[in-house]
Amino acid sequence: MNSNPARHPSGPERISLVAMPTRFARQTWSIWRQVLIVLCLPVMLASCYLPEAFTIDLSMERNGDYRLSYRGLLVQPNITQGLLDKSLDAEGEKEKVAKVLADLKRDSAVRQLTYTGRGVFNMVYEKRGNIMREKSFVFVRRQSRILEMFFNSERNTVEIRGGFVPDQYQDRLTALGYQMTGKIEVRTTAGVRSHNAAEFREINGQNRLRWEIQSISDPVPNVILG
């Protein structure tokens, strides 16, 4: 990757790449239920994880070395739904929570993980690697893509993007009071070929991109480095 100056997209751009859940801890149980059904029933995945109240910090060097941290909540909707419709008792909840903890802790980058109740987990995640060697990276799972990175060897570029949720769910989620809550910062010594960050600065040879996610209509990160 080289250090060419950033080229901003021409004109307004809206990229629907990742959907992040509403403030579960502050919504009524009925809104929780509707949001989770709308978002997760189409896939019906026991391993579905949804981010909330989070901070993502990613730094990447020109040689592909990166450091990624995630601090915030992960919601496991199957546990939440089971508690809501009373199909899950205390013992069943305990068993499912144990499975989630075991699943997530398989990744050695998980530094802290605690269960706070109602299907919500508090996570601290710190990962180091080299995307040029790895070729690709997905957080947190391929079925629950919060952040993805891909190295294109032919173009010598790295693309950073979120997972995607079909557009038809966005209006309904907004009507239910859905609010995305998160802060994302990318710092890199590589050149930035394109991005949709709200804030972009170059400081002492380092490019810094920042997003503050406040609503479902906000653009979410899509960056090409090279």
Summary?
The chain is α+β, with helices and mostly antiparallel strands and 226 residues long. It has 5 helices and 12 strands.
Q: Widest sheet: strand order? A: 3-4-2-1-8-11-10
Radius of gyration: 18 Å
**So what's the oligomer here?**
single chain
Let me know the average pLDDT: 79
Overall 3D shape:
elongated
Would you kindly provide a written description of the structure presented here, covering whatever features stand out?
It contains 5 helices and 12 strands. By secondary structure, the protein is α+β, with helices and mostly antiparallel strands. The strands form 2 sheets. A 7-stranded mixed sheet has the order 3-4-2-1-8-11-10. A hairpin with a 2-residue loop joins strand 3 and strand 4 (120-130). The N and C termini lie close together (4 Å). Residues 3-22, 28-33 and 40-45 have low confidence and may be disordered.
